[in-house]
Amino acid sequence: MDMKGLQLSLSVPNQASSPANPDRAQEPRPATQETLAPGALLLRGIAAAFVPILLDDLARIVAEAPLRHMKTPSGLRMSVAMSNCGPLGWISDRAGYRYSALDPDRGRPWPPLPASFLQLAQSAAAQAGFPDFVPDACLINRYAPGAKLSLHQDKDERDFSAPIVSVSLGLPAVFLLGGLRRADRPSRHLLQHGDVVVFGGPSRLRYHGILPIQAADITAHPQLENIRINLTLRKAR
Fold first, then answer.
1. Which of the four pLDDT bands, split at 50, 70 and 90, describes residue 1?
2. What is the mean pLDDT of residues 215-223?
3. Is-contact 169 194, C-beta < 8 A?
4. Of the candidates 81, 101, 104, 174, which lies 20 to 30 Å from 187 by C-alpha distance?
5. Nearest Cα to 72, choosing from 62, 64, 82?
6. For 3-7+32-234, CATH number?
7. Distance between CA atoms of residues 111 and 108, nearest Å
């Protein structure tokens, strides 16, 4: 699929908010590191060099396994549209949260995990102190303005020794990183296009989430002008 096809597959038309101005492109940022907590590292801008191939691979994935709004076990529609790639995919429905080797909408395996996703995830994990990370699942999230992700733990995996690697593309987002209890007050961190968060070890089961996405008048990428894409790579089994 060409790059125009990616925009049509991922973007959310007819938003009430003002569209981004393509003449005001976000300037590239130097790669830097920030420690968010023990075992949690924010790698700013390290995905920037991967963006062209990430989007090309992403276009092929969502053409095969389209993004969809899953339901929570209680029947609520999630505001974030999702798909997966890799041997396993995270799903949610009335039966609960779990990993599945088959896309329930198509009854077929999820698309393969692209080499670009794997290379970026392993490079980021190694920089954060997790050199042996081998993900077998990648959850793809599309956030339109107003979409959010409530505080939660990633605990559907069998082995918590592997980290979570989270890649941000498109619109900026405010990442909430809490403690090991839901009641712990979370810290707030601005994530921008090309940023990667890695959390594992003592931070692996920290509560985390995303505040409602705000529209922006600066285009991070011409094909991501009204959305945020998050790639979350995990070792599920």
1. very low
2. 75
3. yes
4. 81
5. 82
6. 2.60.120.590
7. 9
